[in-house]
Design goal:
The complex is a heterodimer of chains A (586) and B (283). With 586 residues, chain A is α/β, with parallel strands linked by helices. Helices cover 33% and strands 17% of the residues of chain A. Chain B has 8 helices and 5 strands; from the N terminus they run αααββααββαβαα. The chains are: A alpha/beta (586), B alpha+beta (283). The interface between A and B is large, with 46 and 48 residues. Chain A: One of its GO terms (biological process) is SCF-dependent proteasomal ubiquitin-dependent protein catabolic process.
Chain lengths: 586, 283
């Protein structure tokens, strides 16, 4: 007779051991909801926290619930901050978090931040508070200088990763790299591509030389090409390399020297950098092309013929970021050579020119969608598109998960029929049932939103600009897209009705951004008052809100769910619309 | 009215064409509302003085300044259609100082004409820029713009990423701002944009209740601003030196400006002579 094991006698440490195999946040959250004892066990053994909006919860609350966290990831500003739509001073300061964690998580090992304001003071606090600190990733952050980096380098003895991807660093001295002590040999990843000034090259060489575990090295533009060969020889185990400036005086022995150095890097999988490319030096990387899975040429002004020569050798390419110099012909070659391609991003070389400067059209993307069966992630800037092309792409690639199309001129219609692109995007959402991210452009009516609301059930993030005709458009999206987490809208005629009618939906989302739309101050106030678990923030740089009638549309609106209440660090041009604030305003 | 430039007669730098008459300069009168003739660029942050202050200077501009009508492609708008960023984007024309003589408007400052030349090389001017569109990250924009500047083996000038973000700080303000210098065609445009941007620190923040405003500027502070010309606009150039804005032709300024600072006048004393020496040594 089998005795049933009762849950109460199931040893905690066994449960904890089982839970340790469950890493995803979603699953961990599910575990914590099973019963009280599982909630308790789980919270003590959760080691990794991801907070998608740093204002959604307070550091104190996080530390209280999860007492022994080793890795924290935080995001600050809204996505549209990348395009300068969020004024400086808006917020996203990480210091309060670091301050709280300095005492709350002394064993913290990893900090990953995105779009946050990080000061030197913050970096210094990190450097001295966490004895076992290993990983610092600052993605699109700002507010710090090379002094702060020096503090990290000098004090974090077990540092494995220092990744400053696309952050803004104030250059006060190139010497910060020398602050890594000779005893530091643990580096696995170093990304300084965004640092403007020269770093001490000898310090860099020595650092690379004494880091046998170094796998990722992304240099900044100031590192000249003639130094690259030496660096590569010291780090043949690299899997990811970002070159510095890829130009030099043309000396034949330099080219073969470099090619030789590259040949030594047998494990190289990804490359980036390539600023100021001199095409004659590209053959130096031919030895590694067949092994490359990721190639970022989006800063390289290489013309199509050279690009074709290059990508044709990269048969294992899974990800390509490139400028529109590749043109339709280059994309055709890509489609023929790179059958494993999963992600393609084509950036504009001259986004502000009126006339197209390259022959890149919808044909290029159609070609790739036909030739690359694994293509699932697209970011494509171009100047014309058609419904037909979109329908073709949708039919070719039902496995598409991320589709971002940017037709450079706002409200551009189908260039063949002069119709809106509703049908085309409709086909995308209808066919691509796993679509998680979508960015729209071109001429679009409310109809496209009806399609999105009807079909895009897995959609998590939607970006809309210069589209739609009425509140109905917004209503379709808010009422139809069940999985929607982030919605960002600019310059659309969406107003109060759809927003107020779907107020409850907003609590199921991470955030909503609306700028240059038609949402009135009055509606914002109403929303703020009715929904205590939403922070309804109006951003308006035109002066105090009560100097305008309540029916006047606000400049920008950022709504996000939060259990932390209104934030304390709002600058003068941001107002919270909750009850108390409303009283102060009138 | 706060004067940002030097008495240019003392240096060789002018904003007019070589050979154009430079009339007698009026003595510097800090509180004067009079429009100054001559070739000095007068950048006023008068708007900072509070909500009641008239934009007298802008009125003066409309009547006195002449828009240049002569560019390589014949278009009237010769700053390439660039305009002040913001949702009310429209086409702005650069403003040129004329000496009040009856001379017909010549092409704007040679410098500016060159700028439009570079942009358009004969074709239609680029469109007025919308803020944040196309959606390209600043990092990419700034990287590409400095890249295109280096690309000299091209016969055509590459347009690249046409923007140049610099930080603007103001003494006493709790946070700084960023502006894209390429969206302005002249000191005037920059000045009025900055006025708008920083006026939120003074306008309306001090209500009638004599309390400390959200931004910490008290009413007494506002009174200071109203009565004085407390601030000057300065910039840090590529060499790391702080200079008064307005000394050099606009394009030279945008090429060398790394950041801006709205500085208390009292701190700005001593900047002027250095600027002069620098310009001399450059020439």
């Amino acid at each position: 007779m089998l005795k049933r094991m009762s849950y109460s006698s199931f040893p905690e440490d066994v449960l904890e051991h089982v839970f340790s195999f469950v890493q995803s946040d979603k699953d961990r959250n599910a575990i914590s909801l099973v019963c009280k004892s599982w909630f308790e066990i789980e919270r003590w053994c959760r080691r990794r926290i991801f907070v998608g909006n740093c204002y959604a919860v307070s550091p104190r609350m996080v530390i209280r619930r999860f007492p022994d966290v080793r890795s924290v990831e935080l995001k600050g500003k809204p996505h549209f901050a990348d395009f300068n739509l969020v004024p400086e001073g808006w917020g996203g300061h990480v210091y309060p978090w670091i301050y709280a964690m300095a005492t709350g998580y002394p064993c913290l090992e990893e900090i990953r931040l995105k779009r946050m304001v990080v000061t030197d003071e913050t970096l210094e606090l990190i450097a001295k508070s966490f004895k076992n600190f290993k990983v610092l990733v600052l993605s699109s952050c700002e507010g710090f200088s090379t002094h702060g980096l020096a503090a990290i380098a000098a004090n974090c003895r077990n540092l494995r990763e220092l990744d400053l991807r696309e952050s803004e660093v104030e250059d006060l001295s190139g010497n910060w790299l020398s602050h890594f002590p000779d005893t530091c040999t643990s580096l696995v990843a170093l990304n300084i591509a965004c640092v403007g000034s020269e770093v001490s090259f000898s310090a860099l060489e020595r650092l690379v030389g004494r880091s046998p575990c170094l796998r990722t090295l992304r240099l900044n533009r100031a590192v000249p090409l003639d130094k690259l060969a030496n660096l590569l020889r010291r780090a043949p185990q690299l899997t990811e390399l970002g070159t510095g400036a890829y130009s030099s005086d043309l000396r034949p022995e330099a080219l073969s020297n470099l090619a030789g150095a590259f040949s030594g890097c047998k494990e190289l999988k990804g490359m980036s950098g390539f600023w100021d490319v001199v095409p004659a030096y590209l053959p130096a990387i031919y030895p590694v092309c067949s092994g490359l899975t990721s190639l970022n040429l989006s800063y390289a002004s290489i013309q199509s013929p050279d690009l074709i020569k290059l990508v044709s050798q990269c048969q294992n390419l899974q990800r390509l970021w490139v400028l529109d110099y590749i043109e339709d012909s280059g994309l055709e070659a890509l489609a023929a050579s790179c059958k494993d391609l999963q992600e393609l991003r084509v950036f504009p070389s001259e986004p502000f020119g009126v006339e197209p400067n390259v022959s890149l059209t919808e044909q290029g993307l159609v070609c790739v969608s036909e030739g690359c069966p694994k293509l699932e992630s697209v970011l494509y800037f171009c100047r014309r598109f058609s419904n037909d092309a979109l329908v073709t792409i949708a039919r070719n690639r039902p496995n598409m998960t991320r589709f971002r199309l940017c037709i450079i001129e706002p409200r551009t219609p189908d260039y063949l029929t002069h119709q809106p692109l509703d049908t085309g995007f409709g086909a995308i959402v209808e066919n691509c049932k796993y679509l998680r991210r979508l960015s729209l452009s071109g001429l679009l009516t409310d109809l496209v939103f009806e399609y999105i609301g009807t079909y895009a059930k897995k959609l998590e993030m939607l970006s809309v600009a210069f589209a739609g005709e009425s509140d109905l458009g917004l209503h379709h999206v808010l009422s139809g897209c069940e999985g929607l987490r982030k919605l960002e809208i600019r310059d659309c005629p969406f107003g109060d009705k759809a927003l107020l009618a779907n107020a409850a939906k907003l609590e199921t989302m991470r955030s909503l951004w609306m700028s240059s739309c038609l949402v009135s101050l009055e509606a914002c106030k109403l929303l703020g008052q009715k929904m205590p678990r939403l922070n309804v923030e109006v951003i308006d740089e035109r002066g105090p809100l009560d100097s305008r009638p309540k029916s006047f549309p606000v400049e920008k609106l950022y709504i996000y769910r939060s259990v932390a209440g209104p934030r304390f660090d709002m600058p003068g041009f941001v107002w919270n619309m909750d009850e108390d604030s409303a009283l102060r305003l009138s | 009215m706060e004067k940002f430039g030097l008495n240019l007669k003392a240096t060789e730098l002018r904003l007019g064409l070589p050979g154009s008459e430079s009339p007698e300069r009026q003595s510097s009168d800090e509180n004067s509302n009079k429009n100054k003739k001559g070739n000095t660029v007068v950048l006023s942050l008068k708007g900072l003085a509070g909500p009641g202050a008239k934009r007298g200077y802008s009125d003066a501009i409309d009547s006195k300044w002449v828009f240049s009508g002569n560019t390589s492609d014949g278009s009237i708008n010769n700053n390439g259609g660039k305009c002040v960023s913001g949702s009310d984007s429209g086409l702005c024309c650069p403003v040129v100082k004329e000496s009040g003589s009856a001379q017909s408007p010549k092409p704007v400052v040679v410098v500016q004409e060159k700028k439009s030349h570079t942009h358009n090389h004969g074709s239609a001017p680029s469109k007025a820029q919308i803020v944040g569109w196309p959606p390209i990250r600043s990092f990419r924009k700034n990287t590409m713009s400095s890249h295109s500047a280096k690309n000299d083996d091209d016969s055509e000038a590459k347009l690249g990423m046409e923007c140049l973000y610099v930080k603007v700080s103001m003494d006493g303000a709790p946070y700084l701002r960023k502006v894209d210098l390429k969206t302005y065609g002249s000191y005037m445009e920059l000045s009025s944009a900055l006025e708008k941007m920083f006026s939120c620190f003074t306008i309306g923040q001090c209500g009638s209740h004599n309390v400390l405003s959200r931004d910490g500027l008290s009413e007494s502070r506002l009174m200071d601003l109203l009565h004085g010309s407390e601030y000057v606009l300065t910039y840090e150039d590529k060499d790391g030196d702080w200079m008064l804005v307005g000394d050099v032709p606009w394009e030279m300024f945008t090429n060398s400006c790394k950041r801006l600072r709205i500085m208390k006048s009292s701190e700005a004393i001593g900047l002027a002579p250095r600027a002069m020496e620098k310009c001399r040594s450059r020439n």
